[in-house]
Specification:
By secondary structure, the chain is α+β, with helices and mostly antiparallel strands. It folds into two domains: 203 residues, Histidine kinase-like ATPase, C-terminal domain (Heat Shock Protein 90), CATH 3.30.565.10; 156 residues, no CATH class. It contains 13 helices and 14 strands. The chain has a seven-stranded mixed beta sheet. The longest helix is centred in the last third of the chain and has 23 residues. The protein starts with 16 loop residues before the first helix and ends with a strand. About 3% of the residues have low confidence.
Length: 390
Amino acid sequence: MTVDLSRFAAEDTPPKAGVMINTFRAFGYDLRTAIADIVDNSISAGAHHVRIEYNWEGPDYFISIRDDGHGMALPELIEAMTPGSKDPNDERDPKDLGRFGLGLKTASFSQCKQLTVITKRKSQDILHRCWDLDHVNATGKWSLLDYNPDPKIEENLGEHGTCILWRKLDRLITGSLENNEVARTAYFEELREVMKHLSLVFHRFIERNELVIEMNGNKLMPWDPFMKGSPGVLIPAEELLDNGRINVKCYTMPHITHIPPAERADARTDDWPDLQGFYVYRNNRLLLYGDWMGMGTRSEPNKNARIMVDLPNSLDHEWQIDIKKSTAKPPAHIRKHLKRLAMVTRNTSTKIHKFRGNKVLLSAQRLFGDLQCDLEGNGRPGRKLQLYYQ
């Protein structure tokens, strides 16, 4: 029986401004995922160049992310600064990297207490709006300020673009800023990790010359986790799932002894134990990597196994993509196929590990036969396994 709830008396209970905004600070972002979320917005805004700048200058230290996207008019700017401005169930542009309408706010507040957005559309005036958490806590009001704490930024916007400015970075640095060498070292080490993260997460955009990312003037180079085009990389299987909406391609890296010593740093071989597992892409943006999603465990024999999974953003709900865009859970009917493909890929990796690569490369045909038996023995008789070099 359906009850007409509009017949009952009710009270409006808007959330307290300070409490709600401070709650946004607890979504679990780290600096890497927070900056990546801002870059997502730049890509969705049509940007081709993103410049990330940071400093270490006492109380005036900052992080800024500036792009050459199309910018925003005032209604768009206010909407972008409003928490929960978009319904995650709404149909999105196929190229849109957002979902909840929270990323700008939650990513920023996870790192800073003052978020300013400066934006300009072509042939329009520069606009700016600022959230200052100290001010919100003091007043208890949802006060979005028409304020720019650093007017010099406006000079660098060009004809169009947007700059996200983070100040009062209380989550990154505590204590003395000028004199604490430990804090300074940790700060710049964290930013080096951001460089590595962005070069991986957005590697497809960078490879295709669709995006340039700079950090303090240093251009980031793409890092392809599948080493496509490198000798010794095997592809044990490739399948289309869910009526062709999901593309899965399995890779096994060559044994480290087959990578010249001079190239091992670029291949990040020291990180391989943490890089094994699934790599889930959504609209060419890497969401999740180095995770078996509950379908295996990390181990030394498995460290050469990596599985690429490509999704459209129309499957966000089914895959339970979270606000940070850093976790995903495949639905049951897809999970069973991924589990099977993960087993095949790990088997290949184990053989490479066991035979130290050289014997595997010399005996690819025997490996093909072994893996075909492995796959056919998993309840799928007669299935052909495509084992080939790139």
